[in-house]
Write a structure and sequence with these properties.
The protein has twelve helices and eleven strands. The protein has three domains: 35 residues, no CATH class; 176 residues, Rossmann fold; 87 residues, SIR2/SIRT2 'Small Domain' (2-Layer Sandwich), CATH 3.30.1600. It is globular, with a radius of gyration of 20 Å. A hairpin with a 5-residue loop joins strand 5 and strand 6. With 341 residues, it is an alpha/beta fold. The protein has a six-stranded parallel sheet with strand order 4-3-2-8-10-11, with helices on both faces. A three-stranded antiparallel sheet has the order 6-5-7. Strands 1-9 form a two-stranded antiparallel sheet. The protein binds 2'-O-acetyl adenosine-5-diphosphoribose and zinc ion.
């Protein structure tokens, strides 16, 4: 019964009857393994949980218990020097890139042309091995390039680094915008991989990313010259392990953090979402998002700015007198990006 409930909580299978074996078996095993431990260590494969089942679903939480006063929030940022930032697709919507789960506009609500058995199949490794076309068509459109620019949210996180306040920035995003604002390599962990390199999903041999891009742009399906396996950019798909750095660094960074800032994520995908619960119980946590997600609101020092991210960041920067610095940084960087264009 418990296993049945757990399986029903797995959104990858939710539109399917997993018990009738439509979802890949490997996914089932990974899902159960992931569910046994939602911490950061020991759960290295990417899985998704329905927040309705999650122990930490934010819906219905009492908002009056969460600090939402921007003066107090700005004070916390000002007094912190070891901030861990975690972010998701909501950070990039202001740059024109859709997130995954927002109703109507999110990627998962716009995949009907691909006839997928369930939306997340597009990013599932076993599905990709048999049918790379849906992902390749999506990747053709979203391959990072010069189409999209970083927005205020990205520059705000970079400003935390420049001010010596950022311990590390953990991102789920693969759109490359974080790289464009120039984080130091040691300052950023791209937990769901990147489009910067590519490899064969079977023999793992690396493949020139420019060649991959060229083939995708011509609607060709690139395959491995050695084993004929499909080629994909080194993004972390459901069923694949996150990079080693994530497991080596996230837990310890959170333990020593004096503030955790969580921006633009539904906190539905693990183990990344586990970062939000990794700081000590009394460490302040700030959520900047449209809606209350994860376990925010359950801890004594939780705070939240609910609403549009750029608007929330404007109000924080106003209080900290950071608006001019942020604007200057953005203008200078955009000039540089124009030169490289
Ligand atoms: P989601 O689409 O699940 O969540 C984005 C969150 O950002 C939602 O809570 C939105 O309400 C919020 N949001 C969007 N735009 C916003 C705005 N302008 N202001 C405030 N809030 C905003 O995206 P992720 O949490 O990043 O993995 O998704 C996690 C992972 O699931 C992704 O890395 C991806 C996906 O499947 C893979 O594909 C492997
Ligand atoms: Zn190969």
């Amino acid at each position: 019964m418990l296993i049945k409930r757990l399986l029903q909580s797995c959104s990858t299978c939710a539109n399917n009857d997993i018990l009738s074996n439509l979802a890949p078996k490997s996914h089932l095993i990974q899902f159960l393994a992931g569910n046994a431990n939602r911490g950061l260590v020991g759960n290295n494969v990417l899985v998704r949980f329905n927040s309705s089942f999650s122990f930490s679903g934010g819906a219905g939480r009492d908002l009056s218990k969460i600090e939402r006063d921007v003066d107090k929030i700005a004070e916390r940022i000002s007094g912190s020097s070891n901030i861990v930032v975690m972010a998701g697709a909501g950070l990039s919507t202001a740059s024109g890139i859709p997130d995954f789960r927002s109703p109507n506009t999110g990627i998962y609500d716009n995949l009907s042309k691909f006839n997928l058995p369930y939306p997340e199949a597009i990013f599932e490794i076993e599905y990709f091995k048999n049918n790379p076309k849906p992902f390749n068509t999506w990747a053709k459109e979203f391959f990072p390039g010069v189409n999209y620019l970083p927005n205020k949210g990205h520059y705000f996180i970079k400003l935390l680094e420049n001010e010596g306040k950022l311990t590390k920035y953990y991102t789920q995003n693969v759109d490359g915008l974080d790289r464009l604002v120039g984080f130091k390599d040691e300052g950023i962990v791209e937990a769901h991989g990147t489009f910067n390199t590519a490899s064969c999903v079977e023999c793992k041999k690396s493949y020139p990313v420019e060649e991959l891009k060229e083939k995708l742009l011509q609607d060709k399906t690139p395959t491995c010259p050695d084993c004929k396996g499909n080629i994909k950019p080194d993004l972390v798909f459901f069923g694949e392990a996150l990079p080693k750095r994530f497991f080596d660094e996230a837990e310890i960074d959170c333990l020593f953090a004096d503030l955790l800032i969580c921006i633009g994520t539904s906190l539905e995908v693990y183990p990344f979402a586990g970062i939000a619960d990794a700081p000590r119980h009394d460490t302040p946590r700030l959520l900047i998002n449209y809606d209350l997600v994860g376990s925010f609101g359950a801890r004594p020092a939780d705070c939240a700015l609910l609403g549009d991210i750029e608007h929330s960041i404007d109000s924080i920067c106003n209080k900290l007198n950071w608006n001019d610095k942020l604007k200057q940084m953005q203008t200078q960087n955009e000039e540089k990006l124009k030169i490289y264009k």
